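Problem: given the chain below (704 residues), write out its structure.
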Amino acid sequence: MHRWTGVLWIIVISCTDIICCVLFMLIIAGYMVVGVLAWLYGDPRHVLYPRNSTGMFCGVGQNNDKPSVMYFDIIKCATATNIMAAALQGLQCPTTQVCVKTCPSEFWILPPSAHFPGAKPADFFNQDYCVPSFQLKDTKYVTMDIGNKELCPLFYMPTTSVLGRCLPSLGGNAYNPSNFPSNFTLPGLDVNGTLAAIRNATGDVTNSFNIKDVGLRIFEDFAKSWQWIVAGLVIAMVVSVLFLLLLRFTAPVLVWVLIIGVLAVGAFGIWYCYNEYMSLASSSLNFSNVGLTTNVQVYLQVRDTWLAFLIILCVVEAILLLALIFLRTRILIAIALIQETSKALGHMMSTLFYPIVTFVLLLVCVSYWGITALYLATSGAPVYKVVAMNTSQGDCSVIRANETCDPEMFNSTQYPTCPSARCVFINYNTEGLFQRNLFNLQIYNVFAFLWCVNFVIALGHCTLAGAFGSYYWAFSKPADIPTFPLIQSFMRALRYHVGSLAFGALILTLVQMVRIILEYLDHKFKEAQNPCTRFIMCCLKCCFWCLEKFIKFINRNAYIMIAIYGKNFCVSAKNAFSLLMRNIIRVVVLDKVTDLLLFFGKLLVVGGVGVLAFFFFSGRIQTPGTTFETAALNYYWMPIITVVFGAYLIAHGFFSVYNMGVDTLFLCFLEDLERNDGSPEKPYFMSKNLMKILNKKNKAPKTS
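Solution.
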């Protein structure tokens, strides 16, 4: 009994920030409830599928074989009055819309002969493009009545399905005026005017190219080259791992080469500016003669410009040389820590692949947020109202304001004086407690999403810090390194420090929410702002951006201290900040040296793999014995961009682990210096290389 009580007591006193842990769990539970309610009330088909005029979805249900919606008169989408445009939502237009199997692929307009006595509508109209409830073969209407009632389109043109909407694909020669039928003109317009009206109606969606066609071509390229894209990403992964592991041996050489390279570039700049300054000795131009101009080349012809550049570069070069002389010991410490991190990675290779766990958890968070937002946006029953598609036909005053209707039961014959009356989808029902609070629930969705994302990132930092900390504080390496240090650190973080990680994530989330609100207000009132308010808004956005960066820095180091000592967030943040401020010069030197080295590594990985991908996919490198042909690709640059982007993500993932390792070992090193003195009771845990640089050593225990 005493044994179990002791175990429970240890667990309770070891857990940190329990109140925040409970609050985080409640938020997660509420987030799940919101997701369930959104799933029960929402219907994403409202967004994913187009509708016809009666509100029926295209591509599902009874219209399963009709995935696209066709507009009878797409010109009305652009020429609708402001009142109608405000009433209708989404891509709904004040014209009849029907679901079709395929979009029209040719020009057609009702010929004059269709109005002759005895003409049969079935000989002119296409049943596939007419309202489903209307049958041409059984109708008693003449062509004029069919057109006035918008039962069938009076004209159509070559269109392509874009997001399920039949829109004119204005690329190519299909809409060249020379290809228009002689009778294909809109009322009061010639052929060129008709083309201009069509372009205005369809907007930028299909202004210069066929989106779907380009997408299919790109997908086809990926299908042909995906094996080689994967091969390029594998090469990027191998190069990244080798680069990090070899830093154990190459870090001193690389760091000094990069530092000397920076000095050499500065020296070259000084020499170049001096040459330009001397070459303009006979020039009579000066700043008073030139004045203010936007032509930069003019200033380069002024001798004083190069003198200013020369002075600035000389000052910068002198500062760098002095810093190199006086900070050489700290640079050696930074190099030793980088080498030690590379050794740690060699003993704990699993840490390199932890970003995959973070990526999966972030993917879950983003997916849940997106799905919940989609279901919330489509919550509530759809509302349909009676709308006059063409008020110029007949007397439509019989339609009452905000008159609702049922699309399945609606019959236009109920309004004999208004033949263009239709039952059209307007919006979603906002009545009911759940529907009235949709905006608040969307805000909650964003807040919970940001908190979860920041928590996942915090969990990754704490897990990696715990693994690297266990390496540093192992007195005899690698014998004293715990078994499976990454898994043990992950379990410790989840078991004891969820509250502390959630606390840090909450602080960051609140700042991010303020930034989002500021961006929303700036966008909402941008046109109404005067210069003073714009300046204040800009200052606020800048201040909160800086605050977010500062909090990320504090949180990162606080998570390291939490992983090492297991204390709560506030104490860990205070101790980490105080420790860093007491060693601010070492912090700056290590940070800049590490940034320079990792930047070179990313440049090496991304640049090298990118150049290799360019030569391969452009056909400059032949691969004998393979069936891949570069000429078969439509856009050879798409695989190249994919490989370069993927290589950057891979390099960033691996190098982020390395950066976390450097930061963790650095804090451990500073703690080691302050807490220990090399005596048998308080021995140093740092490597022999670091002790040699600092002229320190562990004293041997006295023998009796």
